[in-house]
Specification:
Blueprint (H helix, E strand, L loop, with lengths): L6 H9 L7 E5 L3 H13 L3 E5 L2 H8 L6 E4 L2 E2 L2 E2 L1 H9 L4 E5 L16 E3 L4 H16 L11
Parallel strand pairs: 1-2, 1-3, 3-6, 6-7
Antiparallel strand pairs: 4-5
Length: about 150
Amino acid sequence: MNAGFSAPFIGEFMNREIADQPCCLVIEDQALIAMSIETYLEDAGIAVQTVGSMAEARAWLASSMADIAIVDFMLKDGPVTELAGELNRREIPFIIYSGYPLRQDMPSELQGVPWIEKPTSREHLLKVVLKTLMALSGQKPTAPILHS
């Protein structure tokens, strides 16, 4: 089950002063899905860089840093297991956003990673992203958790 936050909580987080705008690397090979995610995040005040393959992600990461990543499990150049290991080594938290269901026998690189199945609502995706960003900054939600 997923933890959720109320709409006022999301607004409170977005209104907090953040020294640097957080940056999310979106790794998604389906253009319409990538554009939707990009819009959701930008509307929430998060900078976004979108790439469509693991090769493009590696090239971007060679010269840039993300605070968080949203990753499709299966890209045109294969499953993201190896890239997940790289994100873990770089200490970039990531969320899997996939049409594939979560399995119990996932590789160790994907253990404990938030997994959202496509399709999902804008609100749910933002809740998971904001919860992950808040955990990074040590912030705790002040609004009650709606469900767990």
